[in-house]
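Design job #97: recover the sequence.
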């Protein structure tokens, strides 16, 4: 059986995902086959495995840190919020249905066999499994039949590292308060406390650490400094959304309420002089060099939100001079109409932004597929991307059809003219996306990730603007991420008590 350790937090965004990734990297560096695991994830950023199954991107990032292929075994349950009170429930990578929060709470214990099966299979592939909790283990209203925090730890007999975020303040109250609300058997599982995101001189904390250890009866296993890393995250509380500075080349991503897969644009953050801002109001849009409309878990409602707060008008006003690129739900919004005859979202239909001659019909069956291919024969400001190799995945619940006039005038057979990309999705070649002047749309998540594409886009924008970017030393995205994981591991080795963590590892024991 695999050795196992679990990272839980005092709250959401305490840094659990990164700490799990860092531990995965350390164990990999030390020669162990390591895998991440999160029984239940709630996120709108998701990924499609080679088998066409859907999982949360946090476990994909952690798998990358561990140097292994992402597998749905690492995240057997994924909840994708569709409203303030309901989520799409994905089990073992496939859609089970959409449930209200109360209905799911009553149902979730029936998923324990799925969790145990996934964990058992993952054990066959790993020496060490690093488990991530969700939110806080002390949420009294959620503790009954818990399957993701202490309930998960009990299922696999896992020791727990409890993490608090000092950057938000009140870290000692966070940690002590969480411990006080746990049952005695749950407290015994906590092998160490971690203070995360600390800025300053650690010696200032020593009186507080002594008090914490005395009152909790649990050792502090590390004080981890605040780290400036560029590693993908998936939480709606991500610090990425707070960035306001505008670089020499300024990219604006529309941040609607149900934004999904915003990791599509993280690759641009690796380029010096390029800023990526997430914009939620017309006043904050300013004059970016390129505007992205990302994916959405509720495309029609998010389009209505843009229409009501003035962002749609602001984006359309800039369409003649600024490059627009929509991905997945953003691509659907750019068309002339979105219809929902089967009530996939809220039913009915809505006028689109009318910037591309396409119409979308939402359908109950979700498209989930990995794709490889090339950009088509493009025109307009992104013409130089034509023919460049791309790879990524599609995940959507709709079919987008081109208008007859567009097909007749633009889509000749040779070379993908009139389409953003030509793809091999495992069942033959197909065309994806359309473009008109400065406006481009595609279903491919990760379309900018392949080597050279994001840099080429940035260089084209710089040329258009009459400025020069220094892109000579930019690494390909995969190499850049490997460096970030190594940096994360090095910091954790320095500031965590790894001897204590290794000693706390136990063999998993699933009944």
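Job complete. Output follows.
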């Amino acid at each position: 059986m695999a050795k196992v350790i679990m990272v839980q937090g005092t709250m959401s965004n305490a840094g659990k995902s990164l700490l799990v990734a860092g531990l995965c990297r350390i164990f990999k560096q030390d020669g162990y086959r390591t895998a991440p695991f999160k029984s239940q994830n709630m996120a709108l950023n998701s990924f499609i495995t080679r088998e066409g199954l859907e999982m949360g991107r946090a476990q994909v990032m952690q798998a990358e840190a561990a140097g292994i292929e992402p597998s749905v075994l690492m995240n057997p349950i994924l909840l994708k919020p569709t409203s303030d009170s309901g989520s799409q429930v994905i089990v073992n990578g496939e859609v089970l249905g959409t449930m209200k929060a109360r209905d799911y709470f009553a149902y979730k214990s029936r998923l324990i066999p799925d969790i145990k099966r996934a964990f058992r299979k993952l054990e066959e592939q790993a020496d060490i499994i690093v488990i991530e909790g969700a939110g806080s283990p002390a949420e009294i209203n959620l503790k009954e039949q818990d399957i993701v925090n202490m309930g998960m730890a009990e299922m696999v007999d896992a020791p727990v590292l409890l993490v608090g975020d000092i950057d938000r303040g009140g870290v000692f109250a966070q940690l002590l308060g969480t411990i006080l609300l746990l049952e005695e058997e749950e407290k015994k599982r906590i092998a160490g406390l971690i203070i995360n995101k600390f800025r300053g001189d650690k010696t200032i904390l020593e009186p507080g650490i002594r008090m914490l250890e005395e009152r909790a009866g649990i050792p502090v296993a590390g004080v981890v400094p605040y780290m400036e890393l560029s590693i993908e995250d998936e939480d709606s509380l991500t610090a990425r959304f707070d960035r306001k500075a505008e670089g020499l080349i300024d990219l604006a991503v529309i941040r609607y309420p149900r934004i999904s897969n915003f990791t599509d644009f993280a690759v641009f953050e690796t380029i010096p002089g390029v800023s990526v801002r997430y914009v939620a109001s017309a006043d904050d849009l300013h004059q970016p060099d390129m505007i992205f409309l990302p994916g959405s878990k509720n495309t029609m409602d998010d389009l209505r939100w843009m229409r009501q707060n003035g962002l749609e008008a602001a984006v359309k006003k800039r369409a003649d001079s600024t490059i627009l690129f929509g991905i997945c739900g953003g691509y659907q919004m750019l068309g002339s109409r979105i219809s929902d005859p089967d009530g996939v979202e809220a039913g009915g239909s809505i006028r689109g932004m009318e910037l591309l001659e396409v119409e979308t019909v939402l359908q109950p069956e979700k498209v989930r597929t990995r794709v490889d291919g090339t950009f088509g024969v493009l025109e307009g400001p992104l013409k130089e991307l034509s023919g460049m190799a791309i790879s990524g995945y599609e995940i959507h619940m709709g079919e987008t059809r081109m208008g007859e006039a567009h097909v007749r005038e633009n889509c000749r057979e040779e070379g993908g003219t009139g389409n953003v990309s030509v793809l091999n999705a495992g069942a033959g070649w197909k065309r994806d996306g359309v473009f008109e002047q400065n406006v481009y749309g595609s279903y491919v998540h990760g379309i900018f990730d392949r080597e050279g594409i994001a840099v080429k886009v940035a260089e084209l924008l710089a040329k258009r603007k009459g400025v020069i970017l220094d892109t000579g030393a930019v690494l390909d995205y995969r190499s850049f991420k490997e460096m970030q994981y190594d940096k994360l591991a090095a910091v954790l080795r320095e500031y965590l008590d790894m001897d204590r963590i290794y000693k706390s590892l136990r063999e998993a024991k699933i009944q």
